[in-house]
């Protein structure tokens, strides 16, 4: 099995040293280096082709959110995991909108959680710390409940199977669990998911969950 190549981006040396210590000798992880700025990170991404970039949000030349947007814009084949002390709703939504595949709070993240996030994201899923996931859903559900019911029940062009799969994602099931529940292959699940993503230009599973809630596909 190929090792997961990790690049760490942070302008605080104590964070660089701490996270490096967590990962450098970990089985299945190839810690390829550190960058103290977004511009340096882009250079290293192009040079060393990491699988995952772990990035802070607050940095002097470019925020982690701007770095994520730039990675998406340049179509660089790397996933971004945000590791930051800034986890308010605005930061979370902006990071997700930019294309981040996971968010962890610095103050509450231990080695076990970091490794779980890395491996989950590397497998094509998304990972948000439990408190962040709860905040995302509470905030969004609150907004949706204030909408006019007629605005929440528009008929979008999803097939019955796509709606079925979408409901299972909302309930928090992974690709493998969805496949098992519906007795279909993971490849089929991923195909349906990709179809939904393309139809509505979603960037993440979180956006699909928001869509399902907003359009009354699941019960609030």
In the CATH hierarchy, the architecture of the largest domain is 3-Layer(aba) Sandwich
Q: Tell me the domain tally.
A: 2
Alpha-carbon distance between the termini? 42 Å
* Number of helices, counting only DSSP H or I runs of 4 residues or more: 10
Number of strands: 6
Radius of gyration: 18 Å
Main pleated-sheet profile? 6 strands, parallel
The helicity comes to 40-55%
Superfamily (CATH H level) name of the largest domain: Response regulator
Low-confidence stretches: 149-155
As for the CATH topology of the largest domain, it is Rossmann fold
Strand content: 5-15%
Strands across the major sheet, in which order? 2-1-3-4-5-6
Going by helix content, strand content and strand pairing, the class is alpha/beta
- If you average the pLDDT, what whole number results? 84
The geometry reads as globular
Element-by-element helix/strand order: EHEHEHEHEHEHHHHH
């Amino acid at each position: 099995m190929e090792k997961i190549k990790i690049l760490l981006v942070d302008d605080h040396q104590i964070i660089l040293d701490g996270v490096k210590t967590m990962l450098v000798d970990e089985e299945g992880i190839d810690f390829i280096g550190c960058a103290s700025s977004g511009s340096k990170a882009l250079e290293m991404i192009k040079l060393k082709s990491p699988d995952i970039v772990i990035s802070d949000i607050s940095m002097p030349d470019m925020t982690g959110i701007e770095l994520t947007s730039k990675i998406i814009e340049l179509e660089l084949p790397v996933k971004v995991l945000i590791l930051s002390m800034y986890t308010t709703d605005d930061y979370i939504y902006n990071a997700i909108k930019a294309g981040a595949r996971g968010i962890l709070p610095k103050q509450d993240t231990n080695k076990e959680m970091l490794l779980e996030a890395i491996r989950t994201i590397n497998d094509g899923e998304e990972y948000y710390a439990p408190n962040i996931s709860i905040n995302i859903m509470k905030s969004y559900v609150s907004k949706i409940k204030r909408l006019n019911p007629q605005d929440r029940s528009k008929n979008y062009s999803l097939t019955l199977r796509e709606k079925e799969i979408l409901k299972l994602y909302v309930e928090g099931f992974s690709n493998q669990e969805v496949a098992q529940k519906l007795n279909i292959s993971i490849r089929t699940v991923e195909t349906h998911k990709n179809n939904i993503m393309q139809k509505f230009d979603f960037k993440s599973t979180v956006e699909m969950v928001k869509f399902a809630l907003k359009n009354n596909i699941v019960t609030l």
